[in-house]
Amino acid sequence: MEWVRGEILGHGSFGTVSLAKPKRQSSQEIIPQLMAVKSCGVSCSASLVNEKVILDEFRDCPEIIQCYGDSFSFEKGEKLYNLFLEYASGGALADKLKNSCNSGLPENEVRRYAKGILRGLNCIHKNGFVHCDIKLQNILLSRDGAVKIADFGLAKRLVVGLEKEGNLGCELRGTPLYMSPEMVTGGDQSSPADIWALGCLVAEMFTGAPAWRCSDIAALLMRIGVGDEVPEIPGKLSEEGKDFMRKCFVKDPKKRWTAEMLLNHPFVSDDDEDGDHSTVTLKEVPSASPRCTFDFPDWVSQQSSLTSSSITSLSSPESSPDSHSWFSGQESNSFDGSWSISPAERLRGLISDDQVDWFGSDDWLNIR
């Protein structure tokens, strides 16, 4: 692909990010007229090469930045490796927060961004990868404000049973302010570490300040890894938001909620993302972290919308008012899981001594 480099968008530890425009493309290529290109010297391109390999696995996920290929070029006497990426014209979430004068974002926006990030993380984790560097600077926005998870330079594939082997027990990956306790203490960075980082990110989006207020990295890592301290949960956040963050800030990674579980949390699961969330209750959110189908100790059943008229229609038309149908004896207009008669009595009401003539009825239909 022939292309032209445009203005520089930013710099990173890997190199530079610039606008790029293809000169021409074949009819079979699906490449936009404007891209972002990451460039660095070939000698230090391992991170970008790793990013391309991983992004090629997520071509169909709308919440992950798309990759359009790579190339080599010679510029100013240096051989460069170039990675072509989707251009997110909305900038980074970090820039959006900065433009708000670091006063934080409205909760409805925080909910929307958190939901988009969770969708992307769910896709990443289900495909056996960990991002390892979830933070505001790596969450980009498209023109319409949709979330795009970017910068997979530190991401890695998890091999079942070999996660520890690749970590050497002491490797630190990511940004200290977003590191999880298990990452700090044992170099264990699997999918729960991304969820911890998401909790830090949500706190920062809402308050406008980092989840941890500590300038000394050594002291910060001690606070994260030692003891029971977790980041402070904003007091002005809704009850749903506070509970969401508690599920992210579980110290034990085995008990921390997964991306898939969090997608069903009331904080992000409401379809009316711009509506009033004040009526959402937390009765449907278990206080523990369920890891299987039956692990919901305090799940509260919601009342059914069955009315007395619909219950009556379920009984046989020939039944007398005092005959036992499945719902007979029910005095309430809604089903709440309780019964006024015992199961044995209900079953007796279904038993009949009459013989049923299956072949003598004229009501049978011939089906061909």
UniProtKB/TrEMBL annotation:
SMART domains: S_TKc. Coiled coil: none annotated. Keywords: ATP-binding, Kinase, Nucleotide-binding, Serine/threonine-protein kinase, Transferase. Residues 310-329 are annotated as: Disordered. Residues 310-328 have a biased composition (Low complexity). InterPro entries: Kinase-like_dom_sf (IPR011009), Plant_MAPKKK (IPR052751), Prot_kinase_dom (IPR000719), Protein_kinase_ATP_BS (IPR017441), Ser/Thr_kinase_AS (IPR008271). Residues 3-268 form the Protein kinase domain. Transmembrane segments: none annotated. ATP binds at residue 38. GO terms for molecular function: ATP binding; protein serine/threonine kinase activity. Belongs to the protein kinase superfamily. PANTHER family: CCR4-NOT TRANSCRIPTIONAL COMPLEX SUBUNIT CAF120-RELATED, MITOGEN-ACTIVATED PROTEIN KINASE KINASE KINASE 19-RELATED. This is Protein kinase domain-containing protein. It comes from Cinchona calisaya.
